[in-house]
Design goal:
Layout lengths: L15 E2 L11 H13 L6 H7 L2 E4 L4 E2 L5 E3 L18 H9 L4 E6 L2 E5 L6 E5 L4 E4 L5 H14 L5 E5 L17 H5 L4 E5 L2 H7 L5 H12 L32 E3 L3 E6 L2 E7 L9 E5 L4 E3 L22 H15 L5 E3 L6 E2 L1 H26 L5 H7 L5 H4 L11 H13 L14 H11 L3 H13 L3 H14 L4 H17 L3 H16 L3 E2 L7 H5 L3 H9 L12 E7 L4 E8 L2 E6 L8 E5 L1 H8 L5 H7 L3 E4 L1 H9 L14
Helix pairs in contact: 1-16, 7-17, 8-9, 9-12, 10-12, 13-15, 14-15, 14-16, 15-16, 16-17
């Protein structure tokens, strides 16, 4: 029974190994021309973001962060190629611009009493100086980078104890480094409090468990985990540079939840007003206003990009309407007071009018995405037709750098809104029960006169720069004949040029990852991934049984009905499980009156099994797991669970 590899799609993107290093190709003349045209579309002469991103810099960070085994976790030097101000032909100039901005890493003073660590992984860590100690907000993704960030801070500021940690929301880049900042013993002793929005813990553990293997695999594409850091590879992730490798992920449970829409606390002499914003960028999230500093933290609700309504790695669809509502609430509540707005990605905004414009623009952007998609839905347009119609935000919004498609994109956000309201089906009966890509591919290739004719048409389209059509056309041939080397190479070439032209960092990473795997195959995981022990231990019995349910092949188990009473001795909790019709259901904190099997074990034993420190059969043999009744039938059930393939194909069948 294995759990760990599927936990946390974002938490650990282990480096991949085994790739034959097929060199990337150069930009074509058409891509060079396309990228050059971007220089005329946007106000590249505006250098205000570079001034803001450097404002308050105390010390730049350029050292390598390593883990206990000496493996590199974070190396800013990988991005030295971004020092050139002029974008190469293989990178969209707009993306090159934010990639350079996101490379400005170090310790920054936001305002008197508030400091930020930026550029040490995907997110920012904010430090607020209290009367006797420190308030640390969002302690980065990894223990190693968080420790490095705190060391940099203490190099320049008085060494005070951390007495409060705040998680703004339950995405791992905002809590995973907490053990690099505080000791859990101090939390248990009451010396340190950990504050989070209502629902944080449930969502921090649950979001990536049930579909974890698929999310993790897709996240490798989204963040370009296997791509070289280079002008022809990964240059950025939009929200920040990327995800640390070989990292240690941690979690310490909150000691206090914010439950009121607006809730005021005094934290070590610092007044803080928490604004809950559930259902926005995360299902549990909160902004924070510090009146004494006239400083507003927008968590991840307002960043220097258009964010995702639905991430490319996969998640529940977010609600841009409620997102816009809470941005407007922030504008109304704090717009006339705040003198600086900062978020847990990117750099701050200073000045009352600039802040009001920024919040209003961010509000209008998400409101536009929602309302205009619905307008076109009601005119009968399908998802791709809507994406082809809404190709740009209104001109004034589109000209603002902080609304550009660096992380989310208008194209996939409007399709996400369609999905939220209307589902996967576009209303056309021809699309109600379509053939699989492989079956459709065979038929398309046959209809076009065979593989040679498909390749001939595709080469003509490639020479004309019609790369989107090449990708769509050759995809049929790749799925019909996955061993057709010419098809794979041409598909890779088309995806590569689309990546070079993309303004969106995650789209670029996905295109180039697809090209790499078409050329070299799916890489093997190196086994050097990070440690997420805290996350495994935090897996509740309820989530554990939900996860077991998705690993059962219903047809193989259809005739193996089984009732189980499962007791966790250290929790003093009972769970009644029913396997019937190949489906596992459970009732929490109750027992079957008569069960086929009685299982008794400590939750801590389950944790050790999930962490691969021991095995289920071994513990049952040793006696740490008691199984009474239909023992053999139960062990056959546990031994027959599906193992997800974390290396499944994406660009080939």
């Amino acid at each position: 029974m294995r759990l760990r590899p599927s936990l946390l799609a974002l938490a650990v993107l282990a480096p991949l190994s085994g790739l034959a290093a097929t060199p990337a190709k150069d930009a074509t003349a058409i891509t060079l021309d396309s990228n050059a045209q971007w220089l005329q579309r946007l106000p590249f002469a505006d250098r205000s973001d570079f001034e803001a991103a450097n404002r308050g810099l105390i010390e730049r960070y350029d050292a390598v962060v390593s883990n206990g085994a000496g493996n590199s976790v974070w190396d800013p030097g990988q991005y030295a190629f971004l020092n050139n101000a002029d974008a190469p032909g293989t990178v969209n100039p707009s993306l090159w611009r934010i990639a350079r901005l996101n490379s400005i890493a170090g310790l920054f003073k936001v305002t008197e009493g508030i400091y930020q660590i930026r550029g040490l992984d995907l997110a920012n860590m904010t430090i607020v100086e209290g009367d006797s100690g420190l308030i640390v907000m969002d302690p980065l993704l990894s223990v190693e980078t968080a420790k490095a960030g705190m060391a940099l801070y203490f190099k320049h500021r008085p060494r005070k104890p951390v007495n409060t940690v705040i998680y703004t929301h339950p995405h791992v880049d905002h809590f995973g480094g907490v053990r690099g900042v505080i000791d859990e013993a101090d939390v248990k002793a009451g010396k340190v409090q950990v504050i989070a929005p209502q629902g944080f813990f449930e969502h921090a553990i649950g979001e990536n468990v049930l579909a974890g293997p698929a999310m993790k695999r897709r996240a490798q594409y989204m963040y370009g985990a296997a791509l070289p850091r280079s002008e022809r590879g990964q240059v950025d992730a939009g929200l920040g540079k990327g995800i640390p490798a070989n990292a240690t992920i941690s979690l310490i449970a909150p000691t206090r939840e914010i439950t009121q829409p607006l809730e005021r606390l005094i934290l070590d002499g610092i007044e803080a007003e928490f604004q809950l914003t559930p259902g926005t960028e995360a299902p549990a999230e909160m902004n924070i206003y510090f009146p004494g500093f006239k400083a507003l933290c927008m968590a991840e609700n307002a960043t220097r990009v258009q964010h995702n309504v639905l991430t490319l790695r996969g998640a529940l669809v977010r609600d841009p309407k409620i997102w816009a509502h809470y941005l407007d609430q922030s504008l109304r509540q704090y717009g006339d007071q705040a003198q600086v707005v900062f978020a847990q990605h990117h750099w701050p905004t200073w000045g009352g009018q600039q802040i009001r414009d920024y919040l209003a623009d961010q509000r209008d952007m998400y409101a536009f995405i929602d309302s205009q998609t619905l307008r076109l839905i009601n005119q009968g347009l399908t998802p791709m037709e809507i994406a082809a119609t809404l190709t740009s935000l209104p001109p004034q919004l589109a000209s603002k750098w902080y609304s550009r498609d660096y992380y989310g994109s208008l194209s996939h956000n409007v399709r996400a809104v369609y999905q939220r309201y209307m589902g996967f089906y576009d209303g056309n009966p021809a699309n109600l029960d379509p053939l699989t890509p492989r079956d459709a591919g065979k038929r398309y290739v046959a209809a076009m006169g065979g593989a040679d004719q498909v390749l001939k048409q595709a080469h003509t389209a490639f020479d004309a720069g019609d790369y989107r059509w090449v990708a769509q056309l050759v995809n049929h041939l790749v799925f019909a004949e996955p061993d057709n080397v010419q098809a794979r190479q041409l598909q890779a070439d088309a995806l590569e040029q689309l990546g070079y032209q993309s303004e969106n960092a995650t789209w670029r990473n996905a295109y180039l990852s697809g090209a790499q795997e078409l050329r070299d195959g799916v890489a093997a995981a190196s086994g050097a991934g990070g440690n997420a022990d805290d996350m495994v231990r935090a897996l509740t019995p309820t989530l554990f049984f939900d996860y077991l349910a998705v690993r059962i092949d219903a047809f193989k188990a259809a005739d193996r009905d089984l009732t189980i009473n499962w007791r966790f001795t250290d929790l003093n909790e009972d769970y009644a499980l029913t396997l019937r019709n190949g489906v596992l259901t459970h009732r929490d904190r109750t027992r079957h009156e008569h069960a086929d099997v009685e299982v008794s074990m400590a939750k801590s034993t389950l944790d050790r099994i999930a962490l691969k420190q021991t095995g289920f059969l071994k513990e049952a043999t040793l006696g740490d797991i008691s199984i009474q009744g239909e023992r053999l039938k139960f062990l056959q059930f546990m031994g027959g669970l599906d193992e997800a393939d974390a290396r499944f194909n994406i660009v080939t069948p």
